[in-house]
Prior knowledge:
The chain is α/β, with parallel strands linked by helices. It has helices spanning about 10-15, 15-30, 45-50, 55-65, 75-85, 95-100, 105-115, 135-140, 155-160, 185, 190-205, 215-225, 235-240; strands at about 1-5, 30-35, 70-75, 105, 125-130, 165, 210, 235. It folds into two domains: about 1-115, no CATH class; about 125-240, Rossmann fold, CATH 3.40.50. α11 packs across α12. The chain starts with a strand and ends with a helix. About 45% of the residues are buried. The mean pLDDT is about 95. This is Cysteine-rich domain-containing protein. It comes from Flavobacterium johnsoniae (strain ATCC 17061 / DSM 2064 / JCM 8514 / BCRC 14874 / CCUG 350202 / NBRC 14942 / NCIMB 11054 / UW101).
Amino acid sequence: MKIGLFIPCYVDQFYPKVGIATYELLQKLGCEVYFPMGQTCCGQPMANSGYAHLTKGCDTNFIANFTGFDYIVCPSGSCVLHVKDHLHDEKQEEKATAIRNTVYELTEFITDVLKIDHIDGRFPYKVGMHVSCHGQRGLKLSQMSELNAPFFSKPEQLLHSIKDLDLVALMRKDECCGFGGTFCVTEEAVSVKMGQDRIKDHESHDVDYITGGDMSCLMHLDGILKRQKSRIKTIHIAEILNSLEN
Length: 246
């Protein structure tokens, strides 16, 4: 299975360990992983700000880098959703369609394509799971709490299988952290207050780590935690799954 590893630009620049963990994890799970060196931003920041029509260069470059893979895997639900919803090229629409149909968020790929429901190992810490809006409501990685429907969560399914990992039950498990892409810049005060409220839920359960599938949300929460001099740390789910003890 030939995998194209799609690493968002902000992860590449600020959190390269998340990209490395994703690469190593996919290899451990038996995938043949390639990192296209010419990849850049997928165009999501422009689309978030109402300028999706200016992302044609990003689209063309993405198609050039990710054509020909069996699957494209990314440790960021928001970037995956952007590609699924916005990747188009009038000169290469067939290639664009193929990419939109084969791009997956990491935990979605592990559970739905590789059909893996548990990963052996132990992580002896208390963990709070932050559910990102794009992943939940766009990619359907987990059930929304306002619906009267059976609960499911693809990332939590993997976390529950890990020995000694205490996954806490949050009071408001799918509340937005306030990051919202460029929203955190245009509405800074509201964004920070939402993040502070989100952190209080984790603090009330005395967690050691806040994890999630979107490093953008974790970046937002991590900044607030550091300013508050909190002992709580953030960790991407790929880093947990790749660093399990025996």
